[in-house]
């Protein structure tokens, strides 16, 4: 396991999720961070954890994609957590 994943805008996060699905990599969750003048602030309504739900690679990715699409906005960056991060 490495460190924290890169922070990505919504379209990059969605592309990352799709690539993980194609590669068979399990998505564990996504964390959204609001960009503020001081840096970044995590928000509970921008956190999705599917790690304990025993989902297939495709189902976990679908949940993560839907979540990012619903919560996406210009001032939010995303971390995509996988079994490899």
Which structural traits does this protein have?
3-stranded antiparallel sheet, 2 helices, 85 residues, 3 strands, alpha+beta
Quick gist of this model?
The protein is of the alpha+beta class and 85 residues long.
The number of distinct β-strands equals: 3
Give the CA-based shape: globular
* Tally of helical runs: 2
Domains counted in the coordinates: how many?
A: 1
Q: What is the mean predicted local confidence, pLDDT?
A: 94
End-to-end separation in angstroms reads 5 Å
The Cα radius of gyration reads 12 Å
Class from secondary-structure proportions: alpha+beta
Biggest sheet overview? 3 strands, antiparallel
Report the sheet-strand fraction: 25-35%
**Share of helix, binned:** 25-40%
Give the spatial strand order of the biggest sheet. Answer: 2-1-3
Sketch the topology as an H/E string, one letter per element. HEEHE
Query: Low-confidence parts lasting 5 or more residues at pLDDT below 50?
Result: none
């Amino acid at each position: 396991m490495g460190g924290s994943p890169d922070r990505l805008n919504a379209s990059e996060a969605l592309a990352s999720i799709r690539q993980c699905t194609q590669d068979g990599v399990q998505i564990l969750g996504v964390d959204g961070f609001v960009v503020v003048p001081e840096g970044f602030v995590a928000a509970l309504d921008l956190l999705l954890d599917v790690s304990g739900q025993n989902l297939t690679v495709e189902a976990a990715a679908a949940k993560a994609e839907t979540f990012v699409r619903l919560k996406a906005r210009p001032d939010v960056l995303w971390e995509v957590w996988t079994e490899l991060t």
